[in-house]
Design a protein that fits this description.
alpha/beta, globular, binds pantoate
Length: 292
């Protein structure tokens, strides 16, 4: 099946306005391209639930800090087009920077408190850039459903909050994190890792699983699973830990006590590559004492 590819919002709108999808929902999978199986699973979910599936490809300069990897971010339009063709995507929206932000500094979305900690603390302005572009994509495509991966849980929380606060008529749908056989969460940034770094990288998921195990075994004091996970990470000399936190899955705030479902989230650096991952944890009824 041939995928229609549009560079301008106007052309995309003309296509969407003349496409007869009847009552079936219109799905959007927003991406920055360099598509991989993480995106593939979101596209598949959208394909199952929607009459029409649009994938956007836009390397969003607003979400990169001045020292981040915007220039080197992988861009491979032809491979992405083929990837989408194979998954029966109806159309790609691949706007240029000028198409999205013709007047330079744009109006920006003021994001909620979900954006403050974790990645928001070390990447100031990142979630504002994400939310601004996602809102713009929503306004251009007007999807009924938009699909985001659980790996970027803070992004998901920021966007869900924006959709609620702004009464956006789009359902935010979450797809589970896709992993390589060694547990490593699939991400476009994995390809920056050298062979040696790639071999070390699954330590991130191993550390999160250690924390999850402790929570499942009854830890109530978040310091206990956090320190257990840190120990795993610190065993690898090439790993630098940016953060590891046990947070409330709704508001992304660190919890004082584990009394319900939490997410353990971490960001590490291996060489120049920054990796993030998280797992949802359910506490058990067994309880271990809080540390004094
Ligand atoms: O997750 C991403 O790829 C990006 O943050 C998104 C949602 C496409 C916004 O640029």
């Amino acid at each position: 099946m041939t995928v229609e590819a549009f560079r301008s919002a106007r052309e995309l709108r003309t296509y969407l306005d003349s496409s007869p999808f009847g009552d079936k929902p219109l799905g959007l999978v927003p991406t920055m391209g360099a598509l991989h199986e993480g995106h593939g699973s979101l596209i598949q979910l959208a394909r199952e639930e929607c009459g029409t599936v649009i994938v956007s490809l836009f390397v969003n300069s607003l979400q990169f800090g001045p020292t981040e990897d915007l220039r080197n971010y992988p861009r491979r339009f032809d491979a992405d087009l083929l990837f989408c063709e194979r998954r029966s995507v109806d159309a790609l929206f691949a706007p240029s920077e000028e198409e999205m932000y013709p007047s330079g500094t744009p109006t920006l979305v003021e994001v909620g408190p979900e954006a403050e900690g974790l990645c928001g603390a070390s990447r100031p302005g990142h979630f504002q850039g994400v939310a601004t572009t996602v809102l713009k994509l929503f306004n251009i495509v007007r999807p009924d459903r938009a699909y985001f991966g659980e790996k970027d849980m803070q992004q998901l929380a920021v966007i869900s909050r924006m959709a609620r606060d702004m009464n956006l008529s789009v359902d935010i749908v979450t797809g589970p994190t896709q992993r390589d056989p060694d547990g490593m969460a699939i991400s476009s940034r994995n390809e920056y890792l050298s062979t040696e770094e790639r071999q070390i990288a699954p330590v991130l998921y191993r550390a999160l699983r250690v924390a999850r195990q402790r929570i499942g075994d009854g830890d109530r004091d978040p310091l206990l699973p956090k320190n257990a996970a840190l120990k795993v990470l610190e065993f690898e000399p090439l790993v630098r830990v940016e953060y590891i936190e046990i947070v409330n899955p709704e508001d992304m705030r660190a919890v004082d006590e584990i009394a319900g479902p939490v997410r353990v989230a971490a960001a590490i650096r291996i060489g120049d590559t920054r990796l993030i991952d998280n797992v949802l944890c359910e506490p058990s009824n067994k309880s271990r004492r809080r540390r004094k």
